[in-house]
Write the C-alpha cells for this entry.
Amino acid sequence: MKKVKSLIITGFGINCEEEMAAAYKIAGAESEIVHLNDILLGKKSIHNFDILNFPGGFSFGDDLGSGKVLANKMKFKKLQSGKLFLDDLKDFIASGKYIFGICNGFQFLVKMGLLPDVAEDFNQEVTLTKNNSAKYEDRWVWCKVNENSNSPFLTGIEKIQVPVRHGEGKLIIKNKKIEKKIIENNLNCLSYCDENGYETAEYPQNPNGSDLNCAALTNESGQVFGMMPHPEAFLSLYNHPNWGQLKRQNPKISEDGEGLQIFKNIVDKIIKEVK
C-alpha cells in the first residue's frame, strides 16, 4: 500500500509544524518538515509529496497583517529554475494534489489568492483581519460542516469542537459577487456554531465576526482547504480541557481527538486515489 507523503512548511515564525507532523503520523502518513528556503533554493521539491501543508504560527510577527509578508514571499519569489513559486503551486494543484493551511496557513492561502479562487485566476478575493473583539482569542469553539461541501478533508463530519488561537481570524469578502459565488459553490465549508449545531454570529461562539460565520474555505475542486481553528491541537481526547467529564459521561468515547479525523480523511482520500 502506498504511504502518503506529507510536506510541512516551516520557517519565518511558523510554530505549529510539530503538531501537524504528529497528526499525519497518527493518521498513517509520512511527514517531512522543511524550511521554506530549502524549497525556494531547490533543495526540496513539493512535487515529491502528495499534500503540502502550511501550519499555524506568527510568520514575520504578523507585523504587516497576518500572513501577508510570507504570502507575498511565496507568491512572487522565483525558484532556482526561474519559475515563480506560485506557478509551482499551480502545477501542484493541476496534478491533482492537495494543499492544507491552518490559522496562519489559512491566511497565506487567502492572501496568495489560492482560496477561495472563485475567478480561478489566483488573485486575492477575501482577507483575514482583526477579530471584532480587537483581541487575541484563545478558546474552544464548535463548528458545523456545510453538508453540501465537496471538501474531502471534512468527509463524514457534521460538527466538530476545536480550539482557536488567533488575533486576526475575521474573514472579509471583497464584494457581493464573490460572496454569491462562495455561497453557490458551497466553498464556505465550515461555520462557527453553538453546541447544538446552530450557526451563529454571536460572540464568543463566533470568536471573530467572520462574514458568513466562516471558519474554513475550500476551492471549487476541494483540493485546497484552509481553516482558522486548530485541528492539530485536538489529536487526543486528553487534549480536551474537559476530557474527564466527557469520559465519565460516555465511558466508551473514542480516545481520538475530533481534529484527528480531518487528517485521517485526507490521508484515506489520497490512498484511495492511488488504488
The CA atoms of residues 141 and 204 lie 8 Å apart.
